[in-house]
Amino acid sequence: MSREICVYLEFLEPHHIEKIAAVAAAGGMTARFFGKGDGEAAMACARQAEVIYSTSRRPLTCAEQVKWFCSATAGVDDICAQPGLLPAGCQLTNSNVFGLTIAEHTVMVALMLLRRMPEYEQWVRGRIWRGGLPIRSIHGLEVVMVGTGQIGRCIADRFHALGAAKVTGVNRSGRPAEGFDETLPVFRLDEILPRAEMVILAVPSTEQTAHLLSRERIAMLRPDALVINVGRGTAVDQQAITEALNEGRIAGAALDVTTPEPLPEDDPLWTAKNLILTPHVSGNCTLAYTRDLNVELFCGDLENYTAGRPLAHLVDLSRGY
Amino acid sequence: MSREICVYLEFLEPHHIEKIAAVAAAGGMTARFFGKGDGEAAMACARQAEVIYSTSRRPLTCAEQVKWFCSATAGVDDICAQPGLLPAGCQLTNSNVFGLTIAEHTVMVALMLLRRMPEYEQWVRGRIWRGGLPIRSIHGLEVVMVGTGQIGRCIADRFHALGAAKVTGVNRSGRPAEGFDETLPVFRLDEILPRAEMVILAVPSTEQTAHLLSRERIAMLRPDALVINVGRGTAVDQQAITEALNEGRIAGAALDVTTPEPLPEDDPLWTAKNLILTPHVSGNCTLAYTRDLNVELFCGDLENYTAGRPLAHLVDLSRGY
Fold first, then answer.
1. What distance in Å separates the CA atoms of residue B33 and residue B41, rounded to the nearest whole number?
2. What global pTM score does this model have?
3. Looking at the domain assignment, is residue A51 inside a domain?
4. What per-residue confidence (pLDDT) applies to A83?
5. Residue B111 shares a structural domain with residue B259
6. Core-most of A311, B17, B108, B215, by most CB within 10 Å?
7. Is residue A222 annotated as a catalytic residue, yes or no?
8. Cis peptide before A310 (omega within 30 of 0)
9. Into how many domains does chain B fold?
């Protein structure tokens, strides 16, 4: 019986299939491909597959012989939170390929907040032609970037390219991260929040990051502070930020992630003042570049796997990312 | 009688006044400052001033001895269009200081169009949490930039910094312009429009630029083409682009300038599909950086003026910019 790879993805194009098939064959394995509507066939294949590459977690519930599960997403908090979902001895990798698309989203909403677009858009919807609001620029801006992984780094690169004066990275240990002007450990967050012009969050959902931007920390922010969250909704105290926005205690926010998702229809966040709300689209996989990179990273690790080398994108299950 | 400079500006801060006063004094002149509400006093001063530095054109209507009028705006089409407004022998300079703020506006609306924000924002206003629209990126994008002056250059720099694949500049003569991958003369526009992904216009209002993006040229565009205008409303056939948007013949547009301004309340442009409309705010003077640079450029030319050197920012009255 051949060693099988179950590839169950909604975004595959012919050139992706060709590439994965070739790398699999070179390593003595056979890849089988399933897309939208192929759920049942994919589960049958997953049952006896050695490797699974999927956005969906469903194949894990029927896999009996899987040795490596490659998640096509960056976040794997849901897998880490369900002990037993990943069979004993199965390696888990994730796909850190969302940096570019999330960074472009972040630049977009940062400029929208700095340039007062929530207010201008409201006027324009009312057919009011009125200018003159004081605006700010990324040029010369000082940014606090919480999360210095691939996403934080891509964001920092773009802010530097657009002339930001300083990007301070914040991570668990404060270990220096490339691309940042300085890196601080998360326990020093309270020192820098009171003078931050813009706080961007791109952290995974873990016990440590839950309500990282708590009610107390939101209360520390300057009245002209802007908050952007492109990681996981759990990182922000949503009720507290809704209140701070509506009371004008901060100048604006852009949230691409919420708790829960989808946001319930009666949630007060929908109508918060100076908020740019987007339905978890900053890091979706509709960008050709992101899809290609997703497949490229999997193929790199598939070469490692078939050669008996360690996988490059292994998740540390104890940390959750 | 001392040689006087009439400075009539709404945005002056103490450090601006200090700087202008010092440069004037060093050149043997006296600067007098007028702001909002000082109209009458400013006109009295303008009457016998040798130099006038102003956003408003009103001082020109009473100036009797002015030798140099520095417009705090980039566009001076209105002055060039009124023969006699500028006294014979009076030099005219403009303020090319809006590149940074207009370029940030352009990056913002470019990303909003590429990432389908007009549609997402409409859903979010209806409390619909829905993702998955195919999006595009500045990374790898090919851009046609009509206008290769200071504004076009600042825009090209930012698109390059964000990974654009190619920025083709278009100007009158096709003379190579720094910052562009290639520069074409405007008469070759029809060759490149049919394959352009994004067309950005930043040209002054002149006879030559009127309806530069005509109905015929709009009809040449790809169905996925995006159009951005941050120059003057006259450059685009507004009725034709409204129709193209509503009929889905182009994918989207962002217009910061219209004809006329303010846009009349019953204009069909207000509700055009996939349009980001802003009330001529891309290049306003509310950004500290823009204000500082405005004063800095004037002071540089004031040093030239008092030393008897040619002014650096002279407008060619026959061209209109």
1. 10
2. 0.94
3. yes
4. 85
5. yes
6. B108
7. no
8. no
9. 2
